[in-house]
Amino acid sequence: MDWALLLDKTILIVIIFAVSLGIAAYSTYGERKIAAFLQDRVGPDRAGPFGILQPLADGGKMFTKEEIIPNASNKFLFILAPCIFMMTALMTSSIIPWGKSFNFGGHEFGLQVADLNVGLLYLFAVVSIGGYGIMIGGWASNNKFALLGALRASSQMISYEVAMGMSIIALLLISNSLSLREIVDGQAGDGNMWNVVRQPVGFLIFLICAFAECNRAPFDLPESESELIGGYHTEYSSMKLGLFLFAEYINMFISSAIIASLYFGGYHFPGIDSLNLSQNLAAIVSVAVLFAKILFFIFFFMWVRWTLPRFRYDQLMNLGWKVLIPLSIINVLATGGWITFFGN
Amino acid sequence: MQLTNRSKVVVKRELNWIEKLYLPAILGGLSITIKHLFKKAATVKYPEQKREFSAVYRGQHVLKRDEQGRENCTACGLCAVACPAEAISIEAAERKKGEEHLYREEKYAAKYEINMLRCIYCGLCEDACPKDAIYLSDRIVDPAYTRNNFVYGKDILVEGMDAAGRIDVSKRKKIYQMEGTPKQPLLK
Question: How far is the alpha carbon of A64 from chain B, nearest alpha carbon, in Å?
């Protein structure tokens, strides 16, 4: 066992953990602020300057609320569900390459927890388990609204994961790798461009499916507060509810990171390599570039939420099965044909 | 006849295939929402900023004093009779020697209570008052935790004696002048 490696990874994991939670916390604040601005309001501005302490107030409130476990619920599963949801939300962050590696006096410090050669498969596996968090939570609550929400969530996840996988296959055809670092590096350098240029249709499908997988508007049917109260988390209270809500924002953060990595060159930005920065400076710049892209996509998630109304259930299924899946299959065939006849 | 050019004729027809994609419509929607990001918020941050009330605003009542600081109210009870919500209750008392600087006439209201939850802020008490004593001001009734706290007594209703404590009701008075029913105290 290489102790230096273990130490490196532990430090990185702790940093990523903290950053994920921090970004998720401030996403709640950002969501409310952006919602307010898009509706010509001011938004939370009482806790601290510009309401900057609002997430702390919200978190404090969540912690001090009464913990209620329904009598008729399955207690074990009821408690397990938010844990699964939160855990899977955090686990996906391990394969994302956050930037170029640092060099501290000859010691290389990579900014990726695990460069799996099956990175994307791992991603899909973990995201699918996340669906169980919602399903188990909705079922164990023994509440009709929660069950309906959970059913919607599971059918939505199944429907959209197919199209998402198909759009990824087209991406794999041109990048020849499942490892996220190789996919990211394949979008930089001479003659290469961001995958969004080479896979515009695939990107669109992936983006729509990412919205659906995150249960974000316009695909927020599992929660749909106007018809299902809270959907799968109707019966949850206190910090267990907090975990659900929090994990959703972490999911949003991670999927923004993945969209940025897969289609928008990850931590690369055209022209930055020609600046000839020192290694550590280049690493800092690369992290900043990635986070700028991530923040843009988080903003985009919120922007869309306050623009589009929620889909009806049949519209959701129509879009998933009759539009996105055929379109993604055509996309795979077209990409494959292009590579076969014209080369990569 | 068309008064403005804002009306649009709506035609219900089949969407063509570009419209069926919905993407142009979604982009249009996104551009509308992003424009609002840069618009000024319409919010008035209430406790710090206050919106100017209209001249006819009817808020919390005030019991007026005259120029020498004596209460105008003589506890005649006309306001209580006029009140459609029966929110006002009055107990009268006789002015004693040495209280001339407090009450303008021989009779005064020992107790004057308005239940702010019953009150409908119609202003009929103001209309009924022959002594120029009660007015509705442009103040908002403060929130409170219990219903009892909304029964306002003389301690809250009567304006202060000094200049700082006086409540300006000139705007309300002007309304009566405009209506052509100058509201003047009957006795000077």
Answer: 23
